[in-house]
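In response to reviewer comment 3 from the previous cycle, which asked for concrete evidence that the modeling workflow produces usable outputs, we include below a single protein chain processed end to end. The sequence was submitted unchanged, and the resulting structure tokens are shown without manual editing.
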Amino acid sequence: MPSVRQATIDLLRRHGLTTWFGNPGSSELTLLEDFPSDFRYVLGLQEMVPVGMADGFAQVTRRPVFVNVHTAPGLGNAMGALYNAHLNKTPLIVTAGNQRRVMQNQKALLTNEDAVLLPRPFVKWSAEPATPSEVPAVLAHAIHIALAPPTGPVFVSLPMDDMAHELTASEAAEAEVIRDRAVTYAGGFPGRLAKEIGDRISSANSPVFVVGGDVEHAGAREAVVKLAERTKAPVWTAPLPGLSGFPEAHPLYQGLLPPGAGWISTALKGHDLIVVLGGPVFRYYPHIPGPYLPEGATLVHITSDPDEAARAPVGDAYVGDLRAAVEALLDEVVDTPRGAPTRRPDVPSPDRVAAPMQPSQLWTAVGHAAPADALFVTEAGSNEAPIANFVRPSAPLSHISAVGGGLGFGLPAAAGAQLASPDRPVIALMGDGSMHYAITALWTASRYRIPLTIVVASNQEYGILKQFGDIENTAGVPGLDLPGLDITATAASYGIDAHDAHDSDDVAELLRAGVEDRERPTLINVATTPVHEAASRRS
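The workflow returned the following structure tokens.
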């Protein structure tokens, strides 16, 4: 009869979960022994890294991914990345070993007490099998829950002695049935609701669309572009979206909304109908006083997430299949006689400037030098706004960031995204502070020859915190400066092809060379002006 481990491997193979991201410990060895030759294990040196890599990999493949971490301490290390995956709605099957059942009552070393409680509230579901024979059924349950809309991570704790347990004939037969069954999620959107919303769009004087990352998760991006073009409505990306949801070089695209109520109502002033597709209404921080909506405006919210609909402070929400909803709207909305909105200014041609350069100068150089099909993964703090202004990718699935804003996302997610799309250039746009939260992802990129290109804006500070300090009027805060970081030397020590760029022409040349090198990862470090100096230059 097969063992629990063999039945588990068969289940995961059946569901296509053959690429694992992890950091093994002693309580995981019984699952990992005799690792199958048709499976792939990608090692991260600290648990935040494999969870982040799996996040990027799953977002690109649109498939669930298996993650293996080490009991309570490893799961604790992974929690920041799990927080991001939760808010990114990424379907991760996260597992951790646990101490043998016969030793847990003694609180033996590595016992994960209350294992199912530890990852909450950042998973949709968590469990530990009640008996060894239940392992395949619990894992199958987890996989189906992870894929149920809205998708998200799940967690299963696996006591290490369960793996060697031999199934009885009836248990093995049950495991085979569980392995082979399918759960299909069929969505739709009622025509009467589509007509109701379509009539509101058609009768509005100045509608505007605000899109979130779920537009791309749902495969609705092309339909949203058609809807915007048919209505000649401008399109913004919602604050903290994860994915931009719309081609960023499109004439109708206006950019990324800032995450404050007062800021948003000002940006959307003059619009009488705001239609939010595939994102929350809205994610705010910091607290910027002002109305939720501009005067005279109403809001329609279409989401696949019941919680997003329930917690929104304003607007009429419709919960359903997002792609079906947008496609149904296309049948209800006719071409409009409205004139097209004013398009945002083009990105200027880059001038040659020496480092340290302003963020706008760096990202202008990057935006012009990057190939049209590049996939950008960004985690750059105070640089996120200028990146959105000056780097404008238009290919599908071309700009990924962390919805949750938890630091340590960018490097691992970029490595995972590159593994998932080996023939497409992936470019990580990083801040010097944020990249150090998961710096060991550089080792994984080097070890597995992941041809990632990394551009680092080095201002030697936590610039975003200084910007928040200005908003919150907090002076004299310690720990905001980061002198002495030698990013190029650090990256080289991990085996990365690392360079300092001395001017914007260097940036462009090194970026093109890095993208063309499909054998190893490249890092380009660029000195940039601190946030207060950059602000004084703009003024």
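The radius of gyration is 24 Å. We consider this sufficient to address the reviewer's concern, and the full set will be provided in the supplementary archive.
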